UniProtKB/TrEMBL annotation:
<dbReference type="Pfam" id="PF00890">
    <property type="entry name" value="FAD_binding_2"/>
</dbReference>
<feature type="domain" description="FAD-dependent oxidoreductase 2 FAD-binding">
    <location>
        <begin position="23"/>
        <end position="475"/>
    </location>
</feature>
<dbReference type="InterPro" id="IPR003953">
    <property type="entry name" value="FAD-dep_OxRdtase_2_FAD-bd"/>
</dbReference>
<keyword id="KW-0274">FAD</keyword>
<protein>
    <submittedName>
        <fullName>FAD-dependent oxidoreductase</fullName>
    </submittedName>
</protein>
<keyword id="KW-0560">Oxidoreductase</keyword>
<dbReference type="InterPro" id="IPR050315">
    <property type="entry name" value="FAD-oxidoreductase_2"/>
</dbReference>
<dbReference type="InterPro" id="IPR027477">
    <property type="entry name" value="Succ_DH/fumarate_Rdtase_cat_sf"/>
</dbReference>
<keyword id="KW-0285">Flavoprotein</keyword>
<dbReference type="InterPro" id="IPR036188">
    <property type="entry name" value="FAD/NAD-bd_sf"/>
</dbReference>
């Protein structure tokens, strides 16, 4: 008898009667699962949505709610921006690379306006106004924000247009996306079974996936899927063993998840021969306030800048963790600090203040000559509105004046929607890699052929990305490829 720790598939021949049968079984009720279940049911299939928690939502409901959409959405147009699918794809290939999934990115960009409309048809509201400053999530209900498109080097790669669309909500908006998708799922008659944890796939004699074995209130519960199983179980940041195996640089950091990203869906699929992709990649929510670094600088342990500070902060986080081992400091002066309104500072305060770069360097343990040289070079060029090293927009450039302050990212942040100090390693992370899928969500095996009867979407898969990450691409590719996976599963 298999136990919860065993991920190997169960033979269908071993199961005398299934507890329940359906056409399409979707496992995991976050944004990807909701989108998949909706489309499968809308295609006329009988759909069962299985969820381990007592309600749907997943990490999706906790999210900022940014959804990466472009190509000329009504919100972009109302805010005065021209955009097209080609420019959107160019940006995504650069920002999510190297070697982002070209086929997925191209399709996603081409159908982005239609996906926006699909979300609006499901009742997801977006306000046609722009939040025009670097941030994680606008503190207002503005519906549009930049995601680094207007920062170097992307300004030289694609025509900039803001593409972060956030459902109308002050600060975090993932709850609203899930509220509307949950209503949509109910409206098309999807059966939802909560408190049920899928542990193993059920395999036919020909290697085809026929259902799942789950645990429900301590008992085994079996589900037969007549057409297909869709795995939308999220990533694996909560599984320490998997992190150590695949993404060791993410070990020891705060986790950006609902606590259920244990990678079980990925493991169950691997156990039937599924391939995985980009498992070492991670989103790094570095604990800093984007508006502060844009007005100041971020330096490494040598006191040197290493990235343009007005880009998407997750890219700053990736550079800080993967290239600087999180040995980084935010440097700012009083005018820069005061320019960021208090509600946007998320509890961040200067921890060290000094009259000279050398004194500040001594306080934070970086080479005094290094920090002095960095500030002198920055100031000399900033006075002329230039940044020859990292090309920060002249909008943010101004010589920094004493007293100088240093902020330790390890002191954490306190976003309005979260409790606690967030103090820790300086970063909250989640995994980006996962199952290797086609644009229709078919899960591929090591030969590059679809595993019969098995589909997946969301963070259980490797979506648009390889290594890079831009906020909005997770709720974006989860819902977009979730829809495609659900439709394809229903058509089996
Ligand atoms: C604080 C925070 C802010 C974020 N902000 C953004 C943002 O603004 N934009 C963006 O794009 N992304 C954001 N993200 C990331 C994004 O929320 C996730 O990557 C995305 O929601 C993943 O969607 P999903 O449907 O794949 O997984 P989830 O939403 O996590 O859903 C997976 C579901 O599967 C269930 N499950 C797991 N295993 C099993 C099992 N074995 N059996 C049954 N059920 C199972 C889980 O309980 C969960 O409900 C943020 C994340 C966090 C935590």
């Amino acid at each position: 008898m298999a136990t919860d720790r065993t991920v190997m598939p169960r033979a269908a021949s071993e199961i005398r009667t299934f507890d329940v049968e359906t056409d399409v079984l979707v496992v995991g009720y976050g944004c990807a699962g909701a989108a998949a279940a909706f489309e499968a049911a809308s295609s006329g299939a009988q759909v069962l949505l299985l969820e381990r928690a007592s309600a749907g939502g997943g990490s999706s409901a906790l999210a900022g709610g940014e959804i990466y959409l472009g190509g000329g959405t009504p919100i972009q147009r109302a805010c005065g921006f021209d955009d097209d699918a080609e420019e959107m794809a160019k940006f995504l290939l650069a920002a999510l690379g190297p070697d982002a999934d070209r086929e997925k990115v191209t399709l996603y960009a081409e159908q982005s306006v239609r996906h926006f409309e699909w979300l609006v048809e499901r009742g997801v509201p977006f306000k046609p106004s722009l939040w025009d400053s670097p941030t994680w999530v606008p503190p207002t209900d503005d519906g549009l924000m930049w995601m680094g498109e207007n920062s170097w080097p992307f300004t030289e790669i694609a025509k900039p247009a803001p593409r972060g669309h956030r459902p109308t909500s002050n600060d975090f908006g993932g709850w609203l996306l899930m509220k509307q998708l949950t209503a949509a799922v109910a409206a098309v008659g999807v059966d939802v079974l909560c408190d049920t944890y899928a542990t193993n796939l059920v395999e036919g004699s020909g290697g085809d996936v026929l259902g799942v074995v789950a645990r429900r209130y301590g008992m085994e519960y079996t589900v037969r899927a007549r057409r297909a199983v869709v795995l939308t179980t999220g990533g694996f940041v909560d599984n320490e063993e998997m992190l150590a195996l695949h993404a060791p640089q993410l070990v020891g950091h705060n986790k950006n998840s609902d606590g259920s990203d244990d990678g079980r869906g990925i493991l169950m699929a691997q156990a039937v021969g599924a391939a995985v992709k980009h498992m070492s990649a991670g989103q790094i929510g570095i604990s800093l306030v984007p508006g502060l670094i844009a007005r100041g600088m971020i330096v490494n342990g040598q006191g040197q800048r290493f990235i343009t500070e007005d880009t998407y902060p997750g890219l700053v986080g990736q550079a800080a963790l993967y290239r600087q081992n999180m040995d980084v400091w935010v440097i700012i002066d009083e005018q820069g600090y005061e320019a960021v309104p208090e509600p946007e500072r998320w509890g961040v305060r200067p921890y060290h203040v000094a009259g000279t770069p050398e004194e500040l360097a001594a306080l934070i343990g970086v080479p005094p000559a290094g920090l002095r040289a960095t500030i002198d070079v920055y100031n000399e060029h900033a006075a002329r509105g230039q940044d020859p090293l990292f090309h920060k927009s002249d909008r943010w450039l101004r010589p920094l004046v004493p007293p100088f302050a240093a902020i330790d990212v390890k002191m954490g942040l306190r976003p309005p929607s979260e409790s606690g100090s967030g103090r820790g390693s300086g970063a909250s992370v989640f995994t980006i890699g996962g199952l290797h899928t086609t644009v229709d969500g078919e899960v591929l095996n090591l030969d590059g052929r679809p595993v019969p009867g098995l589909f997946a979407a969301g963070r259980a898969t490797s979506g648009l990305h390889s290594w890079g990450y831009i906020s909005g691409t997770s709720l974006g590719d989860g819902t977009f490829f979730g829809r495609r996976a659900g439709a394809a599963a229903a058509s089996m």
